[in-house]
Design a protein that fits this description.
Distance between the termini: 29 Å
Strand content: 35-45%
Number of strands: 10
Order of helices and strands: EEEEEHEEEEHE
Radius of gyration: 21 Å
Helix content: 10-25%
Structural class: alpha+beta
Shape: globular
Oligomer: single chain
């Protein structure tokens, strides 16, 4: 979104239209959601999470509650959640769409398995979702893979 200030204007250039006082509005610089950590610049952190021996994987309300808490805990901004139940007592798939990207989930309650995909840019920390998922789903085992996406070379 471009914000205008009465105090901050630049002289009109050939490619910038003038306003009624002969100056082009100073455009705000878009926020850069790339991050720099450990001397590396990248688009965001992507954590793949496999839960084995987990419970509550057919409970749609609980999965939504866990997603909401994970979003808050990671410091992200929730835009929308959509969950789909395949059959009564069956698996659930869905996504929490974030301003900073997403958290997706796919569950196989009959196998005690859930796959979470957490991708976040900006000043969010997807790793903070892990204790939330442990508390809600009580997995016997949790396997994670951490990736940095969009590394600037």
């Amino acid at each position: 979104m471009v914000q205008e200030s009465l105090l901050a204007h630049e002289p009109v250039t050939a490619d910038a239209p003038a306003n009624d006082i002969g100056f082009a509005p100073l455009t705000s610089v878009p926020k850069d959601y790339f991050v720099e950590r450990d001397g590396q610049i990248f688009a965001g952190s992507h954590v793949l999470v496999d839960l084995w021996g987990a419970s509550n994987l057919d409970n749609q309300d609980l999965i939504e509650k866990a997603l909401r808490e994970a979003v808050d805990t990671c410091g992200a901004t929730l835009l929308h959640i959509h969950l789909h139940r395949f059959t009564d007592g069956g698996g659930i798939s869905g996504v929490a769409v974030l301003a900073e990207s997403h958290i997706s989930v796919h569950t196989w309650p009959e196998r005690g398995f859930a796959a979470f995909d957490i991708f976040m840019c900006g000043q969010c920390y997807p790793e903070k979702a892990l204790p939330v998922f442990q508390r809600y789903f009580h997995p016997a085992e949790m396997k994670t893979n951490h990736h940095r996406r969009g590394i600037v070379e």
